[in-house]
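Example (one chain per record):
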Amino acid sequence: MSTPELGLPMAVAAPDLPARVRIYEVGARDGLQNEKATVPTEVKAEFIRRLADSGLTTIEATSFVHPKWVPQLADAEQLFPLVSDLGRSSGVHLPVLVPNERGLDRALALGARHVALFASATESFAKANLNRTVDESLAMFEPVVSRAKADKLHVRSYISMCFGDPWEGPVPIHQVVRVCKALRDMGCDELSLGDTIGVATPGHVQNLLAELNEEGVPTSALGVHFHDTYGQALANTLAALQHGVTTVDASAGGLGGCPYAKSATGNLATEDLVWMLQGLGIDTGVDLARLTATSVWMAERLGRPSPSRTVKALSHKE
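Predicted structure:
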């Protein structure tokens, strides 16, 4: 008998936490783009549909980055039409990553209504990932955001290396705040604070959030994106929830890392996040059993077990 059938986890609320958390599912994009093997388009589409069936309402579908840089997602034009009906029939948001105006053109041509940019808080990562300085990348994003907002699209921006950089070490909080403010002033609706190499700790998380608030960036515009390299992802998530953050990025089965940050391990597993939130009495709208079954299904197609502890515990797979 699985633990949910026994009524576990027992919901015990903690003070001053949000009643509901929106999970921003990144497994189909951030997860699969880091797989060595290319996953067939039909399998990706089925993965997204199964994620939606589990109750997830925001599922990042793909990326319109040039195939040379992310060959695993070269099928974006073929994939998006296979799942776009989810937005019309089920109200599922299907954001897509767009690196520049050409990427935006491709997304608009397929009817995407939610787009995401990929910025950096550090010069080293901006150079490695975008082949530009931080300021040059912000200048590149400005017309993308302007055009997207003119078309009434929802615009998110990821900010990588918010807590540490593999080349530069610790990242000063004021440096992160500067980039976040620039993106917010540009018109981005939402900012996702990325712990790209998994080095954040709870106090650092809360200090960054507090400084962003002091500089005029509201908590309601912020999401968090933690990697579990040092086992801190859930602790950091709880610190963010205590500050009032209600959007948390996670990846089904713990898929993904970062192709430009070799020390990074996988994203926070969605199942591990849901288990903790259910135990806190926080609503997510996610059916944990269905989500776990989906991650087991995808792990079988990838030919390796899921690293998620919750998936292993609930599926009895080692």
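Caption: The chain has a mean pLDDT of 93.
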